[in-house]
Specification:
Layout (H helix, E strand, L loop, with lengths): L2 E5 L3 H12 L4 E5 L2 H10 L4 E5 L7 H10 L8 E6 L3 H10 L3 E5 L3 H14 L16 E4 L2 E4 L17 H4 L10 H8 L12 H12 L3
Parallel strand pairs: 1-2, 1-3, 3-4, 4-5
Antiparallel strand pairs: 6-7
Length: 213
Amino acid sequence: MTRCLVVDDDAEIRDAVTHYLQSFGFETRGAADGAAMRRQLSAAPVDVMVLDVMLPGEDGLALLRWLRQHPEHRHLPVLMLTVRGDTASRVVGLELGADDYLPKPFEPRELVARLQAILRRGSRGTFEGREMSADARLLHFASWKFDRVARGHPRSAGHGHRVQPHVAADPGPVPRARADDRRHLARPAHAETPCWKSSVAVKAHRLRCSAPT
């Protein structure tokens, strides 16, 4: 069962979120501020956190910075709750290491979907110092299994087909294309790459070479 800590000073929202997540199989706990969050983390570990930006005393961004500075919480997946239109907090939160954000007011089902997506992405392990379960470290491709830690096909104990390291690395979230990226993609292929002979030209050349003189 996934353990989730909901940090929000609004008791009504906090209780509603914790109860809703429980209906989807989460084991949830709540905290109203930074001090309560630290007590909850000391009492028992959690797998994911929902953290409101607007908190009394230490705000959510300060608490996120604290989490990322402590080795035991550095890789804890965090979804930030922000006020709709608060672009600055979202940008700062992502730069500090938030895994996702959701503006208020939000649909509870979207919160569940985003948490599940974070957990799927967060199933990576020792690439960044995290532990990885046996199930999470294996990727399945039809009848093949790929070990992301050993970076090979676990066909026999300790031996497998090796691949380049960048194949095994977790790519993380895909950034949205910028305008200049789209312009770059729209450039003609011949603008920066050599023009290769077409198959027709190659065949014609071979016929000319093989023709009797």
